[in-house]
């Protein structure tokens, strides 16, 4: 498309957005989205021609107009700080409470991606109002009928807000901590991102740490994440969150006891043997802390050495359940050895006697660590 043709299209779209009927405005919004995608210069010029205020006002129109306007605003916001500022100043955030009632738009990926783009202003000098953005994000995250593809941009937007200390208190008071814990427990696609944000909130804010400690969902969510051997990152984030929450003094005794009752010690033992190297180190530190019954401080650069035999013995001795511990560790060691032997088999040459190798796996797996 030539420069003259593009200019004519822009002028026509601006005119229809401002003075056209409902159907004309919807088509004009679609044209604005197309123009914004086609050329960076055009994208920067369109807001100067006045397209943003009518697009934002269209978010209060019928469903078709709302979706077209959201898509156009998203295309305008992509990668351009100035356009994002134009959109916020046109009143987008003030319309969010009304948009929550629109099931189609509030659950659409276009609006979620638009809010993610707008949330990046939190990392600039622009005075973004997190109190206007957070209710929509939290409501979307806790809704059962919102797909993961829509929740993930909302999580990213929440993380953008959480990176600035001035927004952290608003994030915590919005109910985001409970929403994130629920996501980590019930939604595998979003659990990794949710646990990561929780770790950052707890590490940077006393209010965030307290909110995690006091949430009744926290013990089960953290123990459940520890058992996800198919997702090492979840285990790493969960272990980090536990270390942060229980890092100072006695930590939360209620949280500690609830986690113990849910089987956190066995879950941590499994992580020390089957988890990623980072998860193993973190799990070992937490196990030592549980063994000491929460005495002392859990420091980021301290903690027990990765010695499975002595660690298993200490934990079992402290709990008085040596037989249960021995059975648990037997199972864990068998899984670990089986994985190691499978790796060896993949690298073995055709001359290897597979029968003897299988016998070796069986005999090795029957040996248990002292408990």
TrEMBL record:
Q: Which domain of life is it from?
A: Eukaryota
Q: Which SMART domains match?
A: ARM
ARM repeats mapped onto the chain: 132-176
The record's region (Disordered) falls at 298-323
U-box domain residues: 11-290
Q: Which Pfam families match?
A: ARM_PUB
State the name under which the record lists this protein.
U-box domain-containing protein
The gene from which this protein is expressed is gb02179
